[in-house]
Amino acid sequence: MSQTLEVATPQVAPPRARNRWRILSIVFAAFVALSAVRMFTGQPVLTGSGTIQATLAFAVPIGLAGLGGLWAERAGVVNIGLEGMMVFGTWFGAFAAYTTGNPWAGLVAGVLGGVFGGLIHAVATVTFGVDHIVSGVAINILAVGAMRYLSILYFQDAPGGGASQSPPLPGFPRVGLPFVDSLLGPVEERQWFLVSDLAGLVIGLTTDMSVVTLLAILLVPASYWLLWRTPFGLRLRSCGENPDAAESLGVRVNGYKYVAVLVSGGLAGLGGVFLAMVASSIYQEGQTGGRGYIGLAAMIFGNWRPGGLAMGAGLFGYTDALQVRGSGGAVHALLVLIALALVAVAVWQWLRGRRIVAGVSLGFAVVLGAWYLLTDTLPRELVTYSPHIATLLVMALATQRLRPPAAAGRPWRRGGGS
Amino acid sequence: MSSTQSGGGAAPPAVELRGITKRFPGVVANHDINITVRPGSVHAIVGENGAGKSTLMKTLYGMHQPDEGTVSVDGQVVRLHSPSDAIAHGIGMVHQHFMLADNLTVLENVVLGAERLHGIGARARARVRELSAQYGLRVDPDRLMEELGVGDRQRVEILKVLYRGARIVILDEPTAVLVPQEVDELFDNLRELKREGLTVIFISHKLDEVLSVADTITVIRRGTTVATVDPSGTTARDLASLMVGGELPVPGLRESTVTDEVVLDLRDLRVEAADGRPVLQDVSLRIRRGEIVGIAGVEGNGQSELIETIMGMRPAVSGRVELGGTDITGWTTRAIREAGIGYVPEDRHRHGVLLESPLWENRVLGHQTQPPNSKGLLIDRAGARADTERIVAEYDVRTPGIDVLAGALSGGNQQKLIVGREMSHDPKVLVAAHPTRGVDVGAQAAIWGHLRAARAKGLAVLLISADLDELIGMSDTLHVILRGRLVAEADPATVTPEQLGSAMTGAGLSSDDEEPGPREDEAEA
């Protein structure tokens, strides 16, 4: 008995609470740095309210796709078919909105279209054990072809429609706090350090927002609450971590996988509705533009957690917004920000004793700084592709300590364990 | 709780199995099993691998129904159609392979599937803490599962069962994955459960452990109960003869076959972990023809790294490995194997066999370039299959055929296949890590016999084992490894397991004529 007393396990405080504060402080530091860069480069577009709104508009479909990926992968199903499910969402949303004239009917139909894509994926992967990637890619290919076929059937002869696009669609109502813009607008224009940037942020987040955007933003905390704070979520996540264990405890694994993949498809479908009816006012072929994949990247960046993926989607949306609104000059100014970030990385790595990494980071920082000082704008091609380059860079740098669900992507059959 | 405390004659048995028979297509797994388990006792069920213990426990846990016979719980005949039925009757099971999700917290693992009892939040956490304190399990509900070691994981499994209100806890081979200290802790936990009035059914084939913890022992042989004995009036030897119907094998070597010819020569090996920390330092070791050199040590002191370095799976920072005078440092694993080093890996599922492949393919693996497995560049199917049949016969691998997937065999039979495969190519050196781990007594004796025979023919063996009796009995020379260094050499003829155990923890070979403390001079010899 005395032995058991000696061998007490070392008590380590769970690092989560600390983590939360660290992430918040990093976000805040990034914002301060952004503000400083705006002062330094004289590019108000970096933190302007218009940029924030554009960021939201670009981030929402990516974030919805990412949430879809999160739901599916947390239950153990890799959903590379998000892109196709978004395509279903764009077309069915457009079709229903056009035929009824009611945007809400479009929203419901678009979500159901995505759910339909999810159902195909669930039947293939969960019931028949098809490889998740194969099934997902098949859905992506199927969606494009099938929607073009339906467009020819239903949109070709409509006024303003065609084989690759729909007639104009009704829009969603927009909401906002009425007094914020008039109150904070002048503050934003003063270009004060930090204060004006905060004003821009607040205006961007409270004014003239589509209800679908608001709904999408609310879905992030809602997903967190459902998946991490309810027994339903615990069971769903257990299917993605160790389905054999879940089954041994009476969890109906395949049922949860179905629910997760259907919700995943529905979220992607909602992303499609947003693209067709909020970001634009018609359905167009190729409208999704790979956002399903970028959404998956945002989810990975966010370490398979809702808050993280929202940050990832925001990052991608921000670079997108800059290249559209600010063109070369704003993206050019970003070079300074990246150089600053690299200096920070260099200092941190130096303190951790990794001299080589620190040196390399510092070298890149110097190169970027010199690049900024010696040029006035970036080549047009680089500006257009800056969101994709950002995706690549972020994935390369941020994917060091990620923890995907252990059983994600693995075909699973009942009664496999013991 | 108080009414079932001491389990006197008045209380009905916690579990009573009467005439249980269970048939599977082609085999009768259980036949006329009769067991009576007193409430508040630790009841052990022992038997060789494949004797039908696990089938019986699955019956009791409702994972399948018996073809004949009855199950009674607390004096009432019950029909258990599913594990949920079993749980409803207060029966819980701790599986041999843990059923835990690494990326969830302890709390989440415990409450999963039983959320209705206390939710998944603060109330559940309080209940876990309460149970943990009540039974002395020392489990922190908020740790992430992946941070926990094997012993802690097992306690979480026990907690899972208790959380669901089990009064009867089945443990299926709970000590197979534990190191000796963890086994002691587990037994303390079991005694604690017993003190709280719970009934424990404990399945094992390790007789010493069973004798130390059980109140009653039932022996199963070939699917039926052969005896129920009281541990105070019996010995491991008696139990073994009941189990196998014969004598308990003792590890031992007859006469020395050691020669002067050095076959494997390790010189000043140094190996580092990924972060530059040394995991092996100044390791020098010679193994001669016909010699078995044993390495004793608490797990994680560099044994794995030593083996992997010899086999070319891990690069040495400095030092040399010579095989029969040829420097093989830095050779590829295949070249090393072809040069004549056989390898029985410590984790057979990670390194030894492909569970999803048939036996004959597993027999080819690692020797795919040599006859009888290949002809020129092609695999010789017929030759490999014929040779697999030979191994199955010679090494007594119990299998329906050589096209069976390796995963369908019990661990002991997989191990026999591996040993047979490695011996088939007349190696000069055999690196054997835990060759009898998880193997029943019959197979254990057979593997020892094969090692002895090969040694007599001139095989040099590096033996690594956690079983000190095996090490002492089977080695010509014994070294102790501690924190990556060979710190002491012992004579297996005179050393006791106790002395070896204290040397393994760094206290030195504490006999009268030797001074305590690590003896590093041994390593430089």
Automatic annotation (TrEMBL), chain A:
Its main location: membrane. The keyword Transmembrane helix applies. Keywords: Cell membrane, Membrane, Transmembrane, Transmembrane helix. The chain crosses the membrane at residues 21-40, 52-70, 77-98, 104-130, 137-155, 198-227, 258-282, 294-318, 330-350, 356-374. One of its GO terms (cellular component) is plasma membrane. The keyword Cell membrane applies. It is a multi-pass membrane protein. It holds the Pfam family BPD_transp_2. GO terms for molecular function: transmembrane transporter activity. This is Nucleoside ABC transporter membrane protein. InterPro entries: ABC_transp_permease. It is found in: Cell membrane. It comes from the Bacteria.
TrEMBL record, chain B:
This is Nucleoside ABC transporter ATP-binding protein. InterPro entries: AAA+_ATPase (IPR003593), ABC_carbohydrate_import_ATPase (IPR050107), ABC_transporter-like_ATP-bd (IPR003439), ABC_transporter-like_CS (IPR017871), P-loop_NTPase (IPR027417). Residues 494-525 are annotated as: Disordered. Residues 15-247, 264-508 form the ABC transporter domain. It holds the Pfam family ABC_tran. It is found in: Cell membrane. Gene3D superfamilies: P-loop containing nucleotide triphosphate hydrolases (3.40.50.300). The keyword 4Fe-4S does not apply. GO terms for cellular component: plasma membrane. It is a peripheral membrane protein. Residues 516-525 have a biased composition (Basic and acidic residues). It comes from the Bacteria. PROSITE patterns: ABC_TRANSPORTER_1 (PS00211), ABC_TRANSPORTER_2 (PS50893).
